[in-house]
Amino acid sequence: PAERGAMKDRIRHLLKEKQAVLVAHYYVDADLQDLAEETGGCVSDSLEMARFGRDHPAKTLVVAGVRFMGETAKILSPEKRILMPDLDATCSLDLGCPADEFNAFCDAHPDRTVVVYANTSAAVKARADWMVTSSIGLEIVQHLHAQGKKILWAPDKHLGSYIQKKTGADMLLWQGSCLVHDEFKGVELELLKREHPKAKILVHPESPEAVVAQADVVGSTSQLIAAAQNLDAKEFIVATDNGILHKMRMAAPGKIFIDAPTAGNSATCKSCAHCPWMAMNGLQNLIDVLETGRNEIHVDPAVGRQAKVCIDRMLDFAA
Ligand code: 13P
Ligand code: SF4
């Protein structure tokens, strides 16, 4: 802990010296989340990270999260320097949706409006009409459905089918999934709920249908934290990456948060829901990138300009 304290001091100093701002996701190391908040950066869900990065005047942003978050920041502000603690921090949704296969899928369905989740590469976004995050995907699809649009959706099949059921829209789904949320199990959750009958169930919509079906609240990370704070309950079962529990416990002191079960046959099985790529963000590699300026995100300018169109559409819709 003493060593971590010294490392945090070093980061505070370096952020000031380099006039850089730290933008962190709720799934990264708790110390990084705290540093982002206390130094005037932000800790939030993907939509807020994008908006904050775009609007902040700093010339250097350090994005503690996964690669698509750094790329989105770069696409929105090509003139800024975007650094990441580890450039290999990716996402199973992004990996499972290569641009060439995705382009072929779109080519085969030219009559559909292409809506992609934020968790995709710049090249995939460049082909899309709309980008959405989990906090606003439902509203945007509702809006498109009301205009009579048929939708091609990629890459998360669980989020896609959740939105499809809620809106009744005609959606053709790419079959990707998040390797963390895909592990939550409906039967084990039911058993756990029996042990905690008063607990409210908070679920990220990347989770399988059997888990979403038991939710009291389905939402993005920020929306789940707000629900933890605002719902009149003492106990919560949380089906999303357990990095979020740090913020939930701070936002709602005195309430009890229990990880949703991820595997096994008993209600007592332990969750191991933590994204291996989010976990690549640490104090030491954050110090390294601030000291050296390496691990800069680059996006091909032409691809970036094209990808920006679908991100701007979402941000304008959200405004
Ligand atoms: P949020 O936009 O809800 O923060 O989700 C991002 C993510 O990667 C969830 O796994
Ligand atoms: Fe991707 Fe899942 Fe990790 Fe989120 S938690 S970054 S969706 S692999």
Automatic annotation (TrEMBL):
A GO MF label: metal ion binding
E.C. no: 2.5.1.72
One GO CC term, this protein: cytosol
Pathway involvement of the protein, from the record: Cofactor biosynthesis; NAD(+) biosynthesis; quinolinate from iminoaspartate: step 1/1
Main EC class the enzyme belongs to: transferase
Subcellular location, principal: cytoplasm
Record's protein name: Quinolinate synthase
Name of the gene encoding the protein in the UniProt record: nadA
Portion held of the full protein: 36 to 354 of 379
